[in-house]
Amino acid sequence: KAGVTQTPRYLIKTRGQQVTLSCSPISGHRSVSWYQQTPGQGLQFLFEYFSETQRNKGNFPGRFSGRQFSNSRSEMNVSTLELGDSALYLCASSLDREDSHEQYFGPGTRLTVT
Amino acid sequence: GEDVEQSLFLSVREGDSSVINCTYTDSSSTYLYWYKQEPGAGLQLLTYIFSNMDMKQDQRLTVLLNKKDKHLSLRIADTQTGDSAIYFCAESIEGYSSASKIIFGSGTRLSIRP
């Protein structure tokens, strides 16, 4: 079974631009979560999507948004990029059942904002 | 508030046991996790424990949970060079969903001495 895939793996953008990152969950997984990882702040939860609906949200500004499609693939968008948005963005998928509490992470997209 | 704390570094000799410690603050935590992150890679779920358990063993890994003190530990027996990585402790809150909001610690970098 293929793992969680994220595209692109690396991205360089300039301040003020916007960016869209993509995540394809493991087949059969309906929940997708996004995290931001930086050396200073560590791993921080951005949001979670389930059945095309945002179910949980972390403490990030409205410039960070996401969506989920009917095939469970998810995209994350960051508008008006700032230097501080440079980070590794990780996506994780899960079955989301009471008897399954495992999240599987993708390799991440490394975003550099110059 | 929600906080997970870990020491930043641990160095052990090859073949010895490694013990990585973690403390958390949220008493409503349902699941506690240990993840491993190797350089340039995403997070790999190593093991998890339900908050009403005291111990879980999985091959070389032993997780101990002291709910009264909100202390979690991961013991790796017979530590090998391939165990070199950053280990993250994490807690999930807000319900049973595996993709509920998850709070991560800052990670413990484990290095192995020959």
- Indicate the low-confidence ranges of chain A by residue numbers: none
Structural class of chain A: mainly beta
H-E order of chain B? EEEEEEEEEEE
Rounded average pLDDT of chain A: 92
Helix content of chain A: under 10%
Distance between the termini of chain A: 37 Å
Q: What percentage of amino acids of chain B are in beta strands?
A: over 45%
Helix content of chain B: under 10%
Q: Give the SSE string of chain A.
A: EEEEEEEEEEE
Radius of gyration of chain B (Å) = 14 Å
The dominant shape of chain A is globular
Cα distance spanning the termini of chain B: 41 Å
Q: What is the rounded Rg of chain A?
A: 13 Å
Your description of this structure?
Chain A has 114 residues and is mainly β. Chain A is 0% helix and 53% strand. Chain A has no helices and 11 strands. Chain A has strands at 5-7, 10-13, 19-24, 31-38, 42-50, 53-57, 64-68, 74-78, 87-94, 104-105, 109-113. In chain A, strands 2, 4, 5, 6, 9, 10 and 11 form a 7-stranded mixed β-sheet that branches. Chain A has a 4-stranded antiparallel β-sheet with strand order 1-3-8-7, with no helix packed on it. In chain A, strand 5 (42-50) and strand 6 (53-57) form a beta hairpin. Chain A is globular. The model of chain A has no long low-confidence stretch (mean pLDDT 92). With 114 residues, chain B is mostly beta strands. In chain B, strands 2, 4, 5, 9, 10 and 11 form a 6-stranded mixed β-sheet that branches. A 5-stranded antiparallel β-sheet of chain B has the order 1-3-8-7-6, with no helix packed on it. In chain B, a hairpin with a 5-residue loop joins strand 4 (31-37) and strand 5 (43-50). The interface between A and B is medium-sized, with 30 and 26 residues.
